Amino acid sequence: MKYLATIVLMIGLLFPLGAKDPTPNDVTVAVAAITDTTICAVAAFLNTPSFQLPGTNFYFRNNETLPSVLSFDNADIGTFLPLFMARKSNSSNFLTSLLDAAKGPLNDIAIQYLTVHAWEEGHALLKGAAVTGWGDGMTLASLMGTVVTTGKIPPITITVDVNVKGRRVSTPVRVEGEFMLHSDDEGYFEVQPVALKINGKEAEV
């Protein structure tokens, strides 16, 4: 009986009584926050030298150079933009731009997403984890080699279970799902949802 009471208490803490369903806007914001934060974290990892964003951490399997899990611990996406801007050259020189791209192949994309979505501190805080799939036999060296020679990001799958809260959502949102990050045939970077659950309910993608 004592064990059952403990379980009920834990469930009550996770899902407070009276918690309202997220609005369509809440869902849009939460999904964007997760995909943008994941892109930024991968961009930071691929930067030369690599750096870590506040509230994020990568975990590696033995003898692997690409991370298998990305964790979020109250990661605030609104704090990321200055970190990327500090690594961007002020010069508009074409050669400098190429060098910047070689040092950080996803940095400009991360800056674009952060700017377009106008994230501010406290807008969205993430807690949870994402499992990364880089493709069979892919290593950090081969990934960077592909990016440099083709200018494209090969497919990266991200399977997430993340809670989003903050000033830009009216209620906390739990997002479970799978996303594909890659460059399309024309070289444009895109994020495609493959499967999605919102607060435990299946959602259309």
Descriptive key words:
205 residues; alpha+beta; 7-stranded antiparallel sheet; 6 helices; globular
Secondary structure topology:
Blueprint: H1 2-14, H2 24-46, E1 56-59, E2 69-76, H3 81-85, H4 94-103, H5 107-116, E3 125-133, H6 140-150, E4 156-165, E5 173-183, E6 189-198, E7 201-202
Antiparallel strand pairs: 1-2, 2-3, 3-4, 4-5, 5-6, 6-7
Distance between the termini: 42 Å
Low-pLDDT sequence parts: 1-18
Strand order of the largest sheet: 1-2-3-4-5-6-7
Order of helices and strands: HHEEHHHEHEEEE
Mean pLDDT: 84
Strand count, sense and barrel status of the largest sheet are:
7 strands, antiparallel
Proportion in β-strands:
25-35%
Number of strands: 7
Structural class based on helices, strands and sheet pairing? alpha+beta
Q: What is the 3D form?
A: globular
What is the gyration radius calculated from CA atoms? 18 Å
Q: Number of helix segments?
A: 6
Roughly what percent helix?
25-40%
Model description:
The radius of gyration is 18 Å and the shape is globular. Residues 1-18 have low confidence and may be disordered. With 205 residues, the chain is of the alpha+beta class. The protein has helices at 2-14, 24-46, 81-85, 94-103, 107-116, 140-150, and strands spanning 56-59, 69-76, 125-133, 156-165, 173-183, 189-198, 201-202.
State the gist of this model:
This protein has 205 residues and is an alpha+beta fold. 35% of the residues lie in helices and 26% in strands. It is built from 6 helices and 7 strands.
